[in-house]
Amino acid sequence: MEDVKWGVPSQARAKKVEKYNTPVVTMVALEKKGASRKFVFNKAAREALKLTGGDSHIGFGFLPEDKTILIANFKKETGTTFTVTKSFSVRDKRTYEYIGKLLGFDTAIDNELHFNITENGHLKSYIPEHAPEDKTKEPELVEEASDLESQW
Asked: What's 45's DSSP letter?
């Protein structure tokens, strides 16, 4: 009787483990017709953009010729920005569909957009040539074209 443990044992919850330590924005799969088009920011992307759920406003910028996407945190809401929800996501049908077509994504599955951090704190996308073996590598600091900087 010495091995008896009295009371209901507590169940250990599995901690959420980040898939990447680099900034990644996931385009959530469209499971059914009429589903919302949602972008979810991982922890590294939230930290890089200094996002505060419910208070931050982000904007998407595009360089279609080389299929590059830029994301920046804006101090206040404008007509071209989106408010980040408390769960660190953004919903916008037009942007979701544009990125899907630009990059040729299958929207029936989750798609991951990988980003580097620019010198001025924006995110600049890159398309990985293959799935990274070391998902814990530090993000690279890249330079952004100077003519784009004036737009932010």
From this structure: H
